[in-house]
Amino acid sequence: MTSESKKPSSAVAGIAGPLPTLQEYKKEQVRLREMIEKQKHLFKKLIQLEDTIIQKEATYIESSPTGNIITGYDNYIKGSSGSAAQRRKLGSIEQHCVFSRSSVSYRPNTGSVD
Q1: Are 75 and 84 in contact (CB under 8 A)?
Q2: Of 57, 62, 90, 91, which is the most buried if we count CB atoms within 10 A?
Q3: Is residue 41 within a helix (H) or strand (E), and if so which, with residue range?
Q4: Main localisation, per the record (predicted)?
Q5: What is the C-alpha separation between 24 and 68, in angstroms, rounded?
Q6: pTM (2 decimals)?
């Protein structure tokens, strides 16, 4: 065999350049595990933050006679006749949620967040 045939091919699996060493592989494996753990941690924080938003928004909607922030300003513009407050009482609180429904993890089919 020639010395040319003993060299590892850099064309394996479309990799341009030298193949990674076992040490580099282990290093990247550790880095990937750390990133996955960080993703899990961030997802848990997102869920906690969304729960806080849902609770605060529900408290606001229940305590406000004019509904959510949008219908509340609508009453100021059009003049409050009390009919908007009646409409709010007829619907569920979830219909008036603006902030909690704007989350990327909100599922409209189930009516809850992931």
Answers
A1: yes
A2: 57
A3: helix 22-63
A4: nucleus
A5: 54
A6: 0.54
Q: Where are the beta strands (DSSP E) in 1-114?
A: 106-107, 112-113
pLDDT at 61: 77
Residues 13, 75: Cα–Cα separation, whole Å: 64
Strand partners, 82: none
Q: Give the phi and the psi of residue 112 in degrees, each rounded to 5.
A: -140, 175
For residue 1, count other CB atoms closer than 10 A to its CB: 5
Q: Which residues pair with 102 in a beta bridge?
A: none
Domain ranges of the chain: 23-107
CA atoms 51, 91, 108, 99: torsion sign? negative
Q: Which two tokens stand for residue 70?
A: 């949008």
Question: Tokens for 33?
Answer: 């595990």
**Model confidence over 35-88: pLDDT tens digits?**
999 999 999 999 999 889 888 888 887 777 766 666 655 555 665 555 544 544
